[in-house]
């Protein structure tokens, strides 16, 4: 059995190995990939999300990209008049940019969502929240994925 | 039937925000992974999760292949009245499973 | 090739504790996943095992699975039939065949892992205490010899990583001391549950050697040595590891 990740992951595993961590640390700041930005703007209907009032909590250095805990929390009173309607998470370098979209509302009491995700490689993540007034907020995080030793096959 | 674990309090005070955690056994096959024979294994994932509180949807999520195997979800709701919470996972190849839990609100 | 691998063993702080579970080397997030039963995916297999315990008839002899408290901590145990040690999975299979008159669940099947997991959970937190049975002495010696034997294209023994370089890193991963405290366990790399034998096979593949077949006596011998080496450490089943 091999790891159910993309082919790219297995290639990087062999090609980069221990060098991946160093490469990731040395990589200069870069613009978001078009796929990620398109996915975010697809969710917001073209509106530019504002920063702040939302947190994306994910370990900066993960032990295994197969199962990475992630939590998104939005500051909101969660009342009928003022609440979060949707929370979405997007990634940059998996085969597909979409990770999850959740529909919530005032009955949630708290605008907070936790799940576990796959990361094919080190990359950038963007969380976006849609508020009841039609505005959007976003937060991003950079994650470095290290590789497991002694795997199958 | 897949095993599912649902964690929420049995009782809550009216107006209290309670946390709900769910885990379900599922491979979440991405559809991008080549099998041992080199042929890509077809996608087999849970695509949608819903939570109904006395038949009213209080939480729903669309899941992509980037969600880890044995999907974990944690969210919250306001305890409004005693009743039944129904959790439904649906996905590829006709996957559908519903679990229910009762909540007593005091 | 060996030089290349050894070059990857980056210097790291060695632990001052006499013995350390792999749990201590994990990130806080992965530790939290193991600690909280409502977040530990291994508990899905435990629940499956609980259902199988009743449906396959284990309960009709043994009663409630809670009565298996302490059992998993006492394996591998002497097995008269094979004249050597057997692991818990082997004992369950034997019980299914001899007493339930059914084809045992295959090793590493979801059902076999589930039963081992629910039995293991009953001993969680108890000290590992493999029997000090003199009849096991030859297997124990064999297990230690296998642990110290160089193998594979990389010509590495278990001891060279897990004794001589424990606490250091192999690429990005810390090298644990190889105490099998939490099997069967949920390995993030597997995205599922697996036995110690599966983990040993991963190590053997890692040094480019041919793993023994599942159920081979070599595994029971290595497990016996490792459990004796880990005696007194608390059982963690179902553990989570990267």
Structure, described:
The complex is a heterotrimer of chains A (153), B (106) and C (242). With 153 residues, chain A is of the alpha+beta class. Chain A has helices at 7-16, 19-26, 34-44; strands at 50-51, 54-57, 61-62, 68-74, 84-91, 98-103, 111-117, 123-131, 136-145. The longest helix of chain A is centred in the N-terminal third of the chain and has 11 residues, at 34-44. The relative contact order of chain A is 0.25. Chain C has 242 residues and is mainly alpha-helical. Chain C has a single domain (2-7, 17-241), classed as Orthogonal Bundle (Cytochrome Bc1 Complex, Chain D, domain 2). Chain C has helices spanning 2-8, 28-35, 42-55, 58-62, 88-98, 110-121, 137-148, 158-162, 196-206, 217-229, and strands at residues 9-10, 77-79, 84-86, 169-170, 173-174, 185-187, 192-194, 240-241. Chain C is globular. Chain A binds chain C through residues 1, 3-4, 17-18, 20-21, 59, 61-64, 66-67, 69, 146-153, and chain C through 8, 26-27, 29-30, 32-33, 170-173, 175, 188-191, 201-203, 205-206, 242.
Please state the second-level CATH architecture of chain C. Orthogonal Bundle
Largest interface: A-B, 37 and 35 residues
- By DSSP (H or I, 4+ residues per run), the number of helices of chain A equals 3
The CATH superfamily name of chain C is Cytochrome c-like domain
What name does CATH use for the topology of chain C?
Answer: Cytochrome Bc1 Complex, Chain D, domain 2
Per DSSP, what share of the residues of chain C sits in E-state strands of 2 or more residues? 5-15%
**Biggest sheet statistics of chain A:** 6 strands, mixed
Count of the domains of chain C: 1
Strand-and-helix sequence of chain C, N→C?
A: HEHHHEEHHHHEEEEHHE
Across the major sheet of chain C, the strand order is: 1-4-5
State mean pLDDT of chain C (0 to 100 scale). Answer: 93
Order of helices and strands of chain A: HHHEEEEEEEEE
Low-confidence stretches of chain A: 1-29
Uncertain parts of chain C: 1-16
What is the count of β-strands of chain A?
9
Principal-axes shape call of chain A: globular
What is the share of helical residues of chain C?
A: 40-55%
| Beginning-to-end CA distance, first to last residue of chain C | 25 Å
